Target: Volume-regulated anion channel subunit LRRC8E
Amino acid sequence: MIPVAEFKQFTEQQPAFKVLKPWWDVLAEYLTVAMLMIGVFGCTLQVTQDKIICLPSHEPRENLSEAPCQQLLPRGVSEPMGDLRELSGLKNNLDLQQYSFINQLCYETALHWYAKYFPYLVVIHTLIFMVCTSFWFKFPGTSSKIEHFISILGKCFDSPWTTRALSEVSGENHKGPAATTAGQATVTLTTTAGEGEKEKVLPEPEKVVTEPPAVTLLDKKEGEQAKALFEKVKKFRVHVEEGDILYTMYIRQMVLKVCKFLAILVYNLVYVGKISFLVACRVETSEVTGYASFCCNHTKAHLFSKLAFCYISFVCVYGITCLYTLYWLFHRPLKEYSFRSVREETGMGDIPDVKNDFAFMLHLIDQYDSLYSKRFAVFLSEVSESRLKQLNLNHEWTAEKLRQKLQRNARGRLELALCMLPGLPDTVFELSEVEALRLEAIGDITFPPGLSQLVHLQELSLLHSPARLPFSSQIFLRDRLKVIRIKCEELREVPLWVFGLRGLEELHLEGLFPPELARAATLESLRELKQLKVLSLRSNAGKVPASVTDVAGHLQRLSLHNDGARLLALNSLKKLAVLRELELVACGLERIPHAVFSLGALQELDLRDNHLRSIEEILSFQHCRKLLTLRLWHNQIAYVPEHVRKLRGLEQLYLSHNKLETLPTQLGMCSSLRLLDVSHNGLHSLPAELGLLQNLQHLALSYNALEFLPDELFFCRKLRTLLLGYNHLSQLAPQVGALRALSRLELKGNRLEALPEELGNCGGLKKSGLLVEDTLYDGLPAEVRDRMEAE
Model:
């Protein structure tokens, strides 16, 4: 016999595929195995034993009835045919070869085809059922998706992160509002599920006590594996949700099985009666055997008849199973899958519903074990992913590693700067000594209750790092935070909690207004910022935001950087009565705004990177009696008006990077001037009246076209810095030795052939402060060089 194990390959798929086999597919497999055994058993009998045995009929040809074998049937089977004659002991005079010949001939001609091929038909039909059942596991277009899904599903099911995540949410769900005891320090609990934030604030926010987790912590390797699983699930979901080939293929093979079942059932019921024990055979073999009629016995008829009815019974059960499957397929929306029950059970409200093939496979998984879907859903939750990222961050950024990044910033505060991280490590809040926190290009940040441990925090920078702050943390920072910097794509992304920090002294905002709102330039109210002294806004505003007037009584410094967008309305500036410093950078200004002249307390004005061509309005600065610094650099100013003489209190004047060719002689009347920068212009000469600037300490003349210097210039005995680089000077007057306070002298890029030895009289000038070509320096007398090189 042929062992049934030889057909095992037709029914056995990979063991992992069993999760995609609902109970009806499992039952169908057992039924096909039973039908296959029937077919194999029948084929074995058909091959190994005699098929038919025939005996000749002794009735004369003219007396032969239509059914010569009816006389041999038992009385209970055949119809009464009158007197039966016993035929026993007759000699046929046939040898063995003639009997074999008659047996084979009658088998081929007289036996019905159904009786002959029944076992083979059973095997063929069963194999077709097996192929239909497992075809979608073998077809390239579907098998790859199934294998990928099974692989990911198994890893998600076995991942330690799945157990931890479900345990955490289960623990949170069982905690009630009264879970905290009287002696326990309070915790601020923030749950974000895409709808908002809920906070519960209890006393002593500085002390945060959390219960130890019920499950063991993940090590770094397990965390990285779980992180990779999240990425695989995301990509697989996008790939599978695009089509429904799995759903379509499963329906097609099920419809094919139903059609096959109906065909088998019909023809088997019709032809099963053709399997008879006695078969009449008439063949013209009288010349060979002497007989033309034979009565044949089909030896397997009784057994085949029983097997046929048994096979039909199995087929009926199989067919009913297939019909139920079709009902299940068309009665339920299998191309949509909702995780509502999982969301309610686990508390992960952000688990998304899925569709198409992804949904269909999850429906099949539920028929096997719904626990698979529940554990798989953990890797569809963004909240779960963010928790995992947080855990991995804490593994990677330990407190010791963060302490190595601490350094003093420009303000002298101990600063921790983190850039381009997937999140904010919890270990940051273990560094209680941090005074400034700078976060750049970090994903969505939700500050935990542990923020209250940063008791020395005074400065916070959020650069392209959107952050949410629970109410308890807002209370903590409200009076502590002094400086905050926010940089984002659009100003409407600035968190609202920023405008409630009443202890804030400096607010720096950088972002664009939407095109439709740029002209109005509406900014949130600043009324709560009672201590604000510095406001910096870098945007594309069409006017000074009206909310600036909310802090007019205490704002001391205002900086507006418009990146080239034209600032049209500046009337709000008139209300800033105590403003000391004003920057209007890259605001597209063509004239000095008249609103500036109303600022009686103004001390510094910066108008760089504008389009100023004329500064005739400089006369009005005499109303700004406290003005000390005027920066008009990086413009297109062609001349300085004579009215500059009115600015007698001006101490610093920046006119570099303009188009000046001459300076007015009245500039020498600005007796308080200590710094004058006219570098990067087109000056050919200097007025001798510059020698009247007896308080001048810094003079920048680099990158001009000066050919000589007036001797009166060296009357400025307090001059410490003299920058003359990249001009057309051919000599340096010996009077330079009168500048005893000179400590920095730049002469590079000129046409000098030698340096005067009187440079040795400049007691404060050292080699490091003398910027000149090496050949000119080597031309100085040795004693001069020795004195410059001496410490």
Remarks:
- The radius of gyration is 50 Å.
- The chain has a mean pLDDT of 82.
- The CA atoms of residues 172 and 179 lie 10 Å apart.
- The first strand starts at residue 52 and ends at 56.
